[in-house]
Amino acid sequence: MTTSILVIGAGITGLATAAALQRRGFEVCVAEARADTTSGAGISIWPNALAALDEIGLGDPVRAAGGRITAGALRWHDGTWLRRPAAERITRALGEPLVVIRRKVLTDILAGALAPGTVVNGLEAHTVETGAAGVLVTFTDGSVREAGGVVGADGVDSVVARHLNGPLRRRYAGYTAWRGVAAHPLDPELSGETMGAGMEVGHVPLGSDHTYWFATERAPQGQRAPDGELAHLRKLFGPWAEPIPTLLATTDPADVLRNDLYDRQPARCWARGPVVLAGDAAHPMRPHLGQGGCQGLEDAATLAALVGREPDLPTAFARFAALRRRRVTGIVRTSRLIGRVVNLRPAALSAAASRASVLVPEVVLNRRLASIAARSAFTAVG
Description:
Blueprint: E1 4-8, H1 12-23, E2 27-32, E3 42-45, H2 47-55, H3 59-65, E4 67-69, E5 73-76, E6 81-83, H4 89-94, E7 98-102, H5 103-112, E8 119-121, E9 125-131, E10 134-139, E11 144-147, E12 149-152, H6 159-165, E13 171-182, E14 192-196, E15 199-205, E16 211-218, H7 229-237, H8 244-249, E17 257-263, E18 271-272, E19 275-277, H9 292-309, H10 313-342, H11 347-356, H12 362-373
Parallel strand pairs: 1-2, 1-12, 2-8, 5-14, 12-19
Antiparallel strand pairs: 3-7, 4-7, 5-6, 9-10, 10-11, 13-16, 13-17, 14-15, 15-16, 18-19
């Protein structure tokens, strides 16, 4: 009898995991609480994640649907260069360009690889119980589903993670983030980040005529701009060097997303018996390395490979947890450290630390970046 696997969560990690498992012949159902999962602006897919997508047969469709970035610059808010790397720096250091793609396009590609009816929306997990015959998941609507195994890909507030670990409280990081897409082309030389004291703006081409951007600012939790988020950003970043004012001027206010940033200690237990965690449910991380979704894609490819070769799900899940914890732990720590530096108080300390980053030799940065995001940083199991 074919082993059935229930994936909780239809985000990037959940969809990719389901696609990878179905590719190996497993019966998979994905339960998603939300009726609409299309929110999001853009996402950077680094070469390590492209290698993981290649393992599940979806690397080329993602490359074809996104824009490619071959270098990454760092400037101060007045336009002076903090770091102006050589052209093709990313390609040489990481093995290929990184791809910037709209989140909806990425999730459409992942969902399009699934058998019809795989994803069931409107199912919010409430409890998880492990028994002799498998795993029973009870949903908030009272329905119950049984499966041979469960993958918790349900994010920072994961029900499955709490089943394995007990309470896991998320923590406000002290700053908020905005994301948007500007109807304006970006000079490839300016792809990267522009820094200020306690603030930053990232900007990368999204195809030939749009730019994906994000911005962060220290702010109390739960705030909203009374005159609108885009109006607040235009006032805040208006004096900064181009292209930032133009990017904000060419962004539709309806397309601006604001989210307070949270993290949480990684789950102590990632797997027990036929239940396993993946993505943010296991290892939430701050966004400064662009690896949250990328590590979820690595999780998906690794988990499916192990399920396909190990004798049973508990063995595969336990090995997955051991392998992925070693890979992810340092990335989580580095992401948190960068966030703390960018948001040091008082703002003068943040400014000094950001400007001092120019003192780190390019070869050292490239070596560290390659250990995280190069194609060779992700290796298929076996």
